[in-house]
């Protein structure tokens, strides 16, 4: 395990000296099968896999769940080892943001709308911590889940724009048997809420089919939003069709698109997304 | 000469493979003896020296001199070779900012006040391009002049905050015989303005002495501003004493400080600075 940038770099340096390639899988811990799929994908892309576990304060809003976010470092470390990960990187907040730290990475364009609007400052925090992690480890590849699809696009953008020498790899969403996208926040769900949560994926799948079949975008999205509220969701933050590459809003399906949703079930905010082909 | 990131990286890779260390000297071209001192300093710090020449559009305000800024790539390349630099890196604007580029690096704190206030967005442009150049070349050391002292502090800050693996080295200001700090913008000065420009350094030196001798900060700065205007400067953007490390304003001289000035001589904006010891 590495707790500091210096320890992380020393390990990576040793691997490099031995001619080995390195993958990084950044996580916020509370690891589940979704994360494990990222580790397994990383193992196919590089000789050594570093998994970072860091609950990043700068990507949480003042009223969000930073302090409540589940933390279970021992369990996470065991899971990473069991999945074949070679190093757990568990930095402290003081290591990542020492006194006086005052630099942020800001991505415009792909970070606008969706979670960018719903969570002001969120992607600035994500962009900054991911830049730091990538420059601390300087891996050959870094793996991120498509569950946070907009985040993946923000990271692809900043890596290209800042010339960070790393290949970014997106990994498909891993789902529970009933279709619920795996998420550390699923732990917040009550026994009553849990089956309702699975409706998100069912409704997204249905809507993607309707869109592919020619149903008008505005109509299909309105119907999906209504269906979520009918199912028991308290509020829908957004339910929108966007271009799969640029993330600009799509009003007519002519190119590959992606349907995005964020909705509140009680106090828990769940997100999901699905590809839509014209 | 390298025109693309790929060419630059190929050369640096070859040097690394041969066990050589690399220094980067970022410039905007229009090279003068001040820049050459940076190259010579870099040669003492690393085996190979890359000098980048790029007039960075994102650090110029809409009413500033981006298009008028002197460009003389052939002359610069010859000067770099003569000084012992090993590679000139001359990227195009399209190479540095391809279509869709939308990531900026933002440093707060040290970038506030002084040129940060006088030139909104300037340090964001500087921080972004320097981050890119450092990540393109991944040098062991990078050399910047103390002429742009606030810029040097912004760069030190972002390198630390983003964990860029490079040592930042500041180089002392190089001056003309009459004390005028060397600057590419000195080329804008008319024959009548040129001797007046030298008054900046004389007045800063005098003021630094008065401050060290106990003259109150507000009084000394007001007198220096008046002296500049009397000498023929059209306007003084700022003349301020700041902490030498944090760049916070100093009202009483108790720690090492730095006196900063930006003033307009006709249409030319000149900057300079000097250390002040308590």
Automatic annotation (TrEMBL), chains A, B:
SUPFAM superfamilies per record: Nucleotidylyl transferase (SSF52374)
Molecular function in Gene Ontology: ATP binding; pantoate-beta-alanine ligase activity
Catalytic residues (positions): 35
Source organism (scientific name): Novispirillum itersonii (Aquaspirillum itersonii)
Keyword ATP-binding: yes
Coiled-coil stretches noted in the UniProt entry, renumbered to this chain: none
PANTHER family: CYTIDYLATE KINASE/PANTOATE-BETA-ALANINE LIGASE, PANTOATE--BETA-ALANINE LIGASE
Reaction(s) catalysed (UniProt annotation): (R)-pantoate + beta-alanine + ATP = (R)-pantothenate + AMP + diphosphate + H(+)
Binding residue positions for (R)-pantoate: 59, 151
GO terms classed as biological process: pantothenate biosynthetic process
Entry protein name: Pantothenate synthetase
Alphabetical keyword list: ATP-binding, Cytoplasm, Ligase, Nucleotide-binding, Pantothenate biosynthesis
The gene coding this protein: panC
Family: Belongs to the pantothenate synthetase family.
Function summary: Catalyzes the condensation of pantoate with beta-alanine in an ATP-dependent reaction via a pantoyl-adenylate intermediate.
Binding, ATP: 28-35, 145-148, 174, 182-185
Binding site for beta-alanine: 59
InterPro entries per UniProt: Cyt_trans-like, Pantoate_ligase, Pantoate_ligase_C, Rossmann-like_a/b/a_fold
A GO cellular component annotation in the UniProt record: cytosol
Pathway: Cofactor biosynthesis; (R)-pantothenate biosynthesis; (R)-pantothenate from (R)-pantoate and beta-alanine: step 1/1
Location relative to the cell: Cytoplasm
Principal location class: cytoplasm
């Amino acid at each position: 395990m590495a707790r500091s940038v210096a320890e992380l770099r020393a390990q990576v340096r040793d691997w490099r000296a031995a001619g080995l390639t390195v993958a990084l899988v950044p996580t916020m811990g509370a690891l589940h099968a979704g994360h494990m799929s990222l580790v397994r994908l990383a193992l196919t892309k590089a000789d050594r896999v570093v998994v970072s576990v860091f609950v990043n304060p700068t990507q949480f809003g003042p009223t969000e769940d930073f302090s409540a976010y589940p933390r279970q470092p021992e369990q996470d470390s065991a899971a990473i080892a069991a999945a074949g990960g070679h190093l757990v990187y568990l930095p402290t907040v003081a290591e990542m943001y020492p006194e006086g730290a005052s630099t942020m990475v800001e991505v415009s364009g792909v970070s606008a709308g969706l979670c960018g609007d719903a969570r002001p400052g969120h992607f600035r925090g994500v962009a900054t911590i991911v830049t730091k992690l990538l420059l601390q480890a300087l891996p050959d590849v870094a793996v991120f889940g498509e569950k946070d699809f907009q985040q993946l696009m923000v990271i692809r953008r900043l890596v290209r724009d800042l010339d960070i020498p790393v290949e970014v790899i997106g990994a498909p969403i891993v789902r529970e048997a009933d279709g619920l996208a795996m998420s550390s926040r699923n732990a917040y769900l009550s026994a009553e809420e849990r089956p309702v949560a699975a409706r998100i994926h069912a409704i997204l799948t249905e809507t993607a089919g309707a869109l592919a079949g020619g149903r008008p975008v505005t109509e299909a999205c309105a119907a999906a939003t209504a269906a979520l509220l009918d199912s028991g969701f308290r509020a829908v933050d957004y339910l929108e069709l966007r271009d799969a590459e640029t993330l600009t809003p799509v009003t007519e399906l002519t190119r590959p698109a992606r349907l995005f949703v964020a909705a509140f079930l009680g106090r828990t905010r769940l997100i999901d997304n699905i590809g839509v082909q014209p």
